[in-house]
Amino acid sequence: MKKGLLKRLECAVVALAYLVLTFSPVGSAVALAQGADSEAPSIQLPEVEEGVIGETQVISATVSDNDELASVTLYYRSGAGKDYQSIDMTPIGSTSIHSASVPGNEATADSLQYYIEAVDVSGNRTQEGFSFDPLVRVLNADGNQVAQEPKESTRGNRGRKILYGALGVLVLGALVAAASDSGGSSGGPAADDPTDVPVNIVIDPL
After folding, report:
1. Which of 9, 16, 110, 135 to pair with 65, CA 20 to 30 A apart?
2. 129-165, pLDDT tens digit by residue?
3. Which of 128, 110, 12, 119 minimizes the C-alpha distance to 60?
4. Could you tell me the domains of the chain?
5. How far is the C-alpha of 72 from the C-alpha of 115, rounded, in Å?
C-alpha cells in the first residue's frame, strides 16, 4: 500500500516539474534567449586593389554585428588550385575595420584569391566570397622595373648604305666618262680652266 502511494507521488512530482519548466515564465525566457539573435554579421569590403608579387598583402574589411563578434577569419591562397590558408582578422583600434596581412613569400603567383568569414557569439555567420568563387586581387611584377627601349633595326641602315654606295659609283663613272670625252675632242692636252672646281666624292663604307 505504501509502495503504491509513493510511486504515484513520484509520478505527480515529475509531471509537475515538467509543467513548470515548459509553461512558466522562467522556461519561456530560456527558450527565447537561445534563439533571440538571428541576425548575421555584416561585411563591407573596399574596392579590390592590385598588388605587387612578393610583397605583403594587407586585406581589410568593415565587419559589424548587432550583438558581438566571435571571430573574423581570412581564407586565402596564392593562385588557383592550391589549398586555402587561414588567418585571424583583428580590429584596428576601436573601429569596426578588421585587417590581416598575407606574407610576401605566400603571394608569389599572379593573383591572390581569398574570402572572409565572420561569426558572432550566437553562431550566426556571414561570408564574403566563397572557396569555389573567391575574391581576387591581381598581383603584378615589380613596378620599378624599367622597360627596355626597342633597338633600332639595322636592316634599314644597311640597305641605305648599299643604295648610297651604288649611287656614288654611278656618279663617279659619269664624271670619268665626261672627262674622257672632253680630252678626246680637244686632240691634245687641255689648257687649265680657271673655272674648274675639284669634286670630292665620299662613299660611305658598307
Report:
1. 135
2. 999 999 999 999 875 433 334 434 334 444 444 444 5
3. 128
4. 42-140 (2.60.40.10)
5. 11
Residue type, 142: D
Task: Write the secondary structure of 11-67 as one string of H (helix), E (strand) and C (coil).
Answer: HHHHHHHHHHHHHCHHHHHHHHHHCCCCCCCEEECCCCCCEECCCCEEEEEEEECCC
Query: Cell numbers of 79, please?
Result: 593562385
Q: How many CA atoms lie within 13 A of 14 on its CB side?
A: 6
Our measurement of the distance from residue 139's CA atom to the centroid of its chain's CA atoms, rounded to an integer in Å, reads 3
Is residue 99 predicted with pLDDT exceeding 60?
yes
Percent of all residues in the chain with a pLDDT value above 90, rounded to a whole number = 47
Residue 201: strand, helix, or coil: coil
Q: What's CA 169's distance to the chain center, in Å?
A: 61
Whether the model pTM is above 0.70: no
Q: What is the pLDDT of residues 187-206, one digit of tens each?
A: 554 445 555 555 555 555 55
Q: How far apart are CA 102 and CA 50, in angstroms?
A: 14
Contact in structure between 113 and 76 (CB atoms under 8 Å): yes
What is the Cα–Cα distance from 120 to 110, expressed in whole angstroms?
34
Find out whether 48 and 60 touch, Cβ atoms under 8 Å: no
